Amino acid sequence: MPSTLVDTLIRRFCLATRFPSPVHSANTHTTKAPFSIMTTKLVRFLIYSFAFLSAWLLALNEIIPVPEAFAEFIPALPLWVIVSFGAYSLASIGWSLITFGDCPEAHAELLKEIAQARDELRRAKITIDD
């Protein structure tokens, strides 16, 4: 059962155009993944962008009634979306950098592999700069 509107639209598109649904595959022996996982992020982005742009154009051309208090903000809405997306992106990257965890086990393992590689190179009579 589709969980989102996007899943429903894509499933109906596949049925209407007789494209094979990505959910049904005869060659897989694993459990079938939900349709929302099979949808690529590009397809979702394009569908959401189309829906937003359609609604924005309808509101901009006054086909959809908009309260007068919001009518002056409609032309700047795409710019506001882009700036908000940029702010969210910067905040999520900053948060990821702040909460980046140290991995002492991985550090020790990497140093061990470097020492092992140096020993193998020395045994092969290859000089390395320390």
Automatic annotation (TrEMBL):
Transmembrane parts of this sequence: 42-59, 79-98
Any one Gene Ontology cellular component term annotated for this protein: dolichol-phosphate-mannose synthase complex
MF term (GO), any: glycosyltransferase activity
Pathway note: Protein modification; protein glycosylation
Highest rank taxon of the organism: Eukaryota
Protein's membrane topology: Multi-pass membrane protein
Record Pfam families: DPM3
Keyword Repeat: no
Keyword Signal applies: no
Compartments, as annotated in UniProt: Endoplasmic reticulum membrane
One BP term from GO: GPI anchor biosynthetic process
Function: Stabilizer subunit of the dolichol-phosphate mannose (DPM) synthase complex; tethers catalytic subunit to the ER.
Similarity-based family: Belongs to the DPM3 family.
Subunit structure: Component of the dolichol-phosphate mannose (DPM) synthase complex.
Protein name, per record: Dolichol-phosphate mannosyltransferase subunit 3
Organism: Catenaria anguillulae PL171
